[in-house]
Amino acid sequence: MFDATLYQEVTESFIKTHTKFIVNSFKNVLEWKSEGKEEILDVGCGEGSTTIHILEKMVMENTKNYNILGIDLMDAMIDLAKKSFPNRENIQFKQADILDVNAWVGYKEHFHKVLSILCFMIVPNPKVWIKNIYNVLKPNGQIFFMLCLTNAMVKQQLYLSKQKKWETYQKKNAMCSEFFINENSTDWIIRHLEEGGFKHLIYNEIVFDTPLKNKEASYKFTKAFTLLNETIPEELKEEYLNELCENIEKEYSKNKEYSKISYLIISGRK
Ligand SMILES: C[S@@+](CC[C@H](N)C(=O)[O-])C[C@H]1O[C@@H](n2cnc3c(N)ncnc32)[C@H](O)[C@@H]1O
Asked: Taking the complete model, does pTM exceed 0.90, yes or no?
């Protein structure tokens, strides 16, 4: 799905800066208990740097009494998180699938907050992950999600997945998800969250520029997202990535808006 080490490296160039800005700008939507421990779940924590450098920092501004459980589907992400950030008193990293109903049975109404940064765009079965998150939240518990609505890499992935040469391989690709192909991804996800029982939903969209303007920068970045071409035969993987990155350069030369990335920030309550 991702090359964990490369992901940690390339996301430092702009994604982590955007995430920091967004969390700082929207953190006031979260309310903090004055007494007792805050139990917090970070879904799709990746290699842990967002959890430690951005989310934990934000939590510590509000309480000293907290516990964060960072979970991720990929063993490689969790291994890197544990290696990069060992012996954290208030944080545990654990391999787990947010879609696995059985994995969450023991956490019923356990968390005060569920945070998730850039994860749900690629997780299928929204009804299942929404239900699991709803069940592990305490009554009146809060959610704070940051999602990516689109960027040059996503646009090219969707474009190439409709081209004759690639379409048969890309039908089941996680990056061609229902979220990304939807005409209005914001309405789609908000409707699912409402149907799942979440209330007081507030959402905002925010746009930044990125270095995804030429083939070289795009290639370095997209290499970390191994899910882009994981459904393509081994011998064609490199050709696919090259085409995707060349197309980004071509599109940017015609339209300078092409390098923009837009994010969706959602908060709400059980
Ligand atoms: C784009 S990364 C974001 C990582 C991190 N939150 C960050 O801010 O850099 C998305 C993460 O979601 C994880 N993920 C995807 N599907 C998942 C699932 N079903 N359950 C848990 N994690 C999942 C991936 O393994 C990946 O590490």
From this structure: yes
